[in-house]
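Hi X.,

You mentioned you wanted examples for the new student's onboarding notes, showing what a folding record looks like when two proteins sit in one file. Here is a clean example. The first protein comes first, with its sequence line followed by its structure tokens.
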Amino acid sequence: QVYLVESGGGLVQPGGSLRLSCAASGFTLDNYAIGWFRQAPGKEREGVSCISSSDGNTYYADSVKGRFTISRDNAKNTVYLQINSLKSEDTAVYYCNAGLHWGRGTHVTVSS
């Protein structure tokens, strides 16, 4: 069975950090560029970051640049999103994507 599973979300205070994980089962992530997306309540899903399959090039949305870091561990078939200096506007469900595959998301809530 082929699927992606996100984990690592939770409730965190403003300024806090989380590390989100995206683990694949049934296929190999290193053949794919991986994207992290998020969807806040009442808003459309937006791209946050992605990492290429070959050379490790990364992309970040302006809203997260300098605070989020994407990385991949091909040996663990997992991609990570380190999110620091969290703000209330980062509250969303975070999804990872690999080609046609989407996970079900992990909730991040930033609140004091």
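Then the second protein repeats the pattern, sequence line and then tokens:
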Amino acid sequence: QVQLVESGGGLVQPGGSLRLSCAASGFTFSSSAMNWYRQAPGKEREMVAAITSAGGSTNYATSVKGRFTISRDNAKNTVYLQMNSLKPEDTAVYYCYTKRFRSDYWGQGTQVTVSS
């Protein structure tokens, strides 16, 4: 079965950096586009970054463009989110997501807290 397991979240000061990882299994990772989403308390879940199956194209939410970088290693079945210049408004639970054959798959999420 499809499994997505995020890691790398934590508490960081404003201006700091974190790198999230999402380990995927149970499907052909190299054929699947991948996304990172986030959900802050009291807010709707929003798409943060997306990457195509081969990694040749990426897309970002306006709020993170220039600060976050999505990448993937198809040999390791892992997608990453490098987050730099973090702001308090980046505080949220971050989720890995993929869509396979009309079904949506989500990881369990990893908490990112940006605070001094």
